[in-house]
Amino acid sequence: MDKTHLVDHVTGHRRMRRNRKADWTRRMVQENRLTVDDLIWPIFIVPGTGIVDPIKSMPGVNRMSVDKAVEAIREAADLGIPAVAPFPDIEMNLRDETGSAILDPNNLINQFTIAAKKAVPSIGVITDVALDPFTSHGHDGILREGMIVNDETVDQVIKAAVLQADAGADIIAPSEMMDGRIGAIRRGLDAAGHQDVGIMSYATKFSSGFYGPYREAINTSGLLKGDKNAYYISPANGTEAMRDAALDVEEGADMLMVKPGIAYLDICWRVKEAFGLPTYAYQVSGEYSQIKAAAMNGWIDGDRIMMETLLCFKRAGCDGILTYFAIEAAKKLGRV
C-alpha cells in the first residue's frame, strides 16, 4: 500500500521537521551555540570599601567598591567568564568640564584594574577611555562653547589609554566615537611600549534610547546637557555605521563592537561579513532592564528570553557579548 501523502507531493518529499523530531537530532543539527567563553561582564565601580549598592533601574546589578568588585570577578573567573569591563561612578567633586580625572594614574578605574590583575590575573580587563564618567556635563568628550571638540578629546583619550595600559588593562575599548581615535590610541600605546594591549573599537555606537539605566548607574543622567547626536551614529544609518567601522579597521582595531545590541543585529551581521574581525555586541542597560522588568511582572520567562537573546547575537555573527546577564547566563550554561 502506497502511503505517500499529499504533503509529500507538495514538498517534493522534503520535510523540514525530520531534523526537529527529537532532542538528539535537534542537538545534532544546531548551528550556533552559546558558551561561557562568549560572555564579557560589565561592572560598575564606586569609591570606598565594603560597598555593594543596588541600581534601582537595573535589578540584580550593583555598584561595587574595588574590594567587593574583586570578590565578584573571582566568582566570574571561577565560572569561566573570560573578561570584565569596568565603568566608574566617581565623586561629583572630581568631575569637570574636561574630564581631567581620567588622567589621574590612581583614579578609580585604574585602582580597580591594578587590584583585579593582582587578585585574579586569569581574567581579562577591558577598559573604556570615554570621558563621560569624568565630565561635569555627562558628554563623552571635552565640551567647548556647546560643542564636543574632536581633536582635543583624542589627545586626552590617548593619554588615558596609556595610563590604563600602565595599570594592567588588557584591551582598551574606546567608546566616545571621536574621529581618528583608534589610530591615535594605537600609536600612543605602541610608543609607550604597550604593543600587546589590544583595541576593541566601539565601531558602531548608535545614538540610542537604550542607554538610560547605564547613565543612572554612573550618575551622568542628571548632568547631561543636550544629546550625543553630534558624535554617535543615527539609528537610521546603516551605511554610515559601516563606513565608521571600516575606518576603525584601517586604523588598526583588533576587535569591533556594535552597541546597542538586539535592535542592531543587522549591523552585527554586516560588520562580521564585511571585515571578518572578532565582532562583539553590547547588550546594553536598557535591553537588560526591559527583560528584567517584564520577567518581574510575570509577562515573560526571563531566563528563556535572556538565553534566547544571547544566542541570537551568536547567530548574527558575534564572537561574544558584553552583557549584564553574564553571571546568570554562565551559571545556567554550567548546569546544561
SSE order and pairing:
Elements: H1 6-11, H2 23-29, E1 39-46, E2 52-54, E3 62-65, H3 66-79, E4 83-88, H4 108-119, E5 124-127, E6 142-144, E7 147-149, H5 150-167, E8 171-172, H6 181-191, E9 198-205, H7 212-217, H8 238-251, E10 255-259, H9 265-275, E11 279-283, H10 285-296, H11 302-315, E12 320-323, H12 326-335
Parallel strand pairs: 1-3, 1-4, 1-12, 4-5, 5-8, 8-9, 9-10, 10-11, 11-12
Antiparallel strand pairs: 2-3, 6-7
Helix pairs in contact: 3-4, 5-6, 8-9, 10-11
Short précis:
The protein is α/β, with parallel strands linked by helices.
Model description:
- The structure is a single chain.
- The chain has helices at 6-11, 23-29, 66-79, 108-119, 150-167, 181-191, 212-217, 238-251, 265-275, 285-296, 302-315, 326-335, and strands at 39-46, 52-54, 62-65, 83-88, 124-127, 142-144, 147-149, 171-172, 198-205, 255-259, 279-283, 320-323.
- It is of the alpha/beta class and 336 residues long.
- Strands 1-4-5-8-9-10-11-12 form an 8-stranded parallel barrel, surrounded by 9 helices. The protein has a two-stranded antiparallel sheet with strand order 6-7.
- Strand 2 and strand 3 form a beta hairpin.
- It is globular.
- The model has no long low-confidence stretch (mean pLDDT 96).
CATH homologous superfamily annotation: Aldolase class I
Order of helices and strands: HHEEEHEHEEEHEHEHHEHEHHEH
Second CATH tier, the architecture = Alpha-Beta Barrel
What is the helix content?
40-55%
Whole-number total of structural domains: 1
Using only CA atoms, what is the Rg? 22 Å
Low-confidence stretches: none
Q: Give the spatial strand order of the biggest sheet.
A: 1-4-5-8-9-10-11-12
Q: Report the top-level CATH class.
A: Alpha Beta
Output the CATH topology.
TIM Barrel
- Measure the end-to-end span: 45 Å
InterPro entries: ALAD, ALAD_AS, Aldolase_TIM
Subunit structure: Homooctamer.
Family: Belongs to the ALAD family.
GO biological process, one term: protoporphyrinogen IX biosynthetic process
